[in-house]
Amino acid sequence: MRPDIMAAKPCAWAIATNQSQKAFGVTLGGEFSTAINDCGLWLNGIGNSQRPECQVWDDWSSYDATLIASFKQITLATMDALQNFFFWTWKIGNSTVLGTSSNPLWHYQLGLRKGWIPKGREAIGHCASVLQSSQIFDGIFAPSATGKVKDSYEYPDVPRIDVLSLKGAGTVDPVQTSLHAFPPATILPSFSGTQIALLPTYTPTGTMKTLPGPTFTAAPTAAVGKGWANDADTALAYV
To answer: What is the CA radius of gyration of the chain?
Structure first.
């Protein structure tokens, strides 16, 4: 399928992602690439030969401005639709067979240089413009996903916009923890009772490990903290 036809297809995931973020909590899309097919050196296994039609996709040096623009639209749509993801992969070395980078649509660094990977945060809002509406997620997770919602007066030194990102920090709703007791009473298909008790578990009996701030000679002094941001958080580590 042509890249220009594929360009808007990833946005079909956007509404489901936004609904999941709002109703369930942090939703991860996993990994993706800009590829629209399975062309690429050894992509289907070492030694497997490529189809003749793959040459046009693998020869990135011949991409024209129109094709690069279409690939960029695919990338923008996928980034905005998935929201939380990682790209596969950052860099692909030069092929000893081709003498240049293979699998260009899996090659983030190359795409960034050549233009089909966006620079900065261009992807934000892309699917909303494509779909006209994508039930945009407002960035505030449900209390059941992250814990108690705190009010802005609890953060007097934090700008209002940042307070919104802090909502949810706190203790988890007891109703939710009661629904997901750990360790569970049974593990299907056959673990229960004394068998469950034999399984190893973590207990909150360890001391919290922190990393001290670095010190440098012949450098201005700076408040680097002591490795733990919240002095009120004294819970023991699970070990």
So the answer is: 24
- Provide the token pair at 187: 């593990």
Cis amide linkage into residue 96, ω under 30° from 0:
no
Q: Whole-angstrom Cα distance, residue 161 to residue 233?
A: 24
Alpha-carbon span 30 to 87, nearest angstrom: 8
Residue 40, phi-psi category: left (phi > 0), alpha (psi -120 to 50), beta (remainder):
left
The amino acid occupying position 87 is: F
d(CA 162, CA 219): 31
| 105 in Cβ contact with 33 (< 8 Å) | yes
* Helical H segments across 36-98, by residue range: 55-58, 65-82
Chain centroid to CA 173: how far?
25
Q: For residue 119, give the amino acid letter.
A: K
pTM passes above 0.70: no
Residue in the structure block whose two tokens are 């990102």: 165
Mean pLDDT per 10-residue section of the chain, whose length is 239 residues: 86 90 87 91 80 88 95 95 92 85 92 94 90 79 64 46 47 73 80 82 86 73 73 84
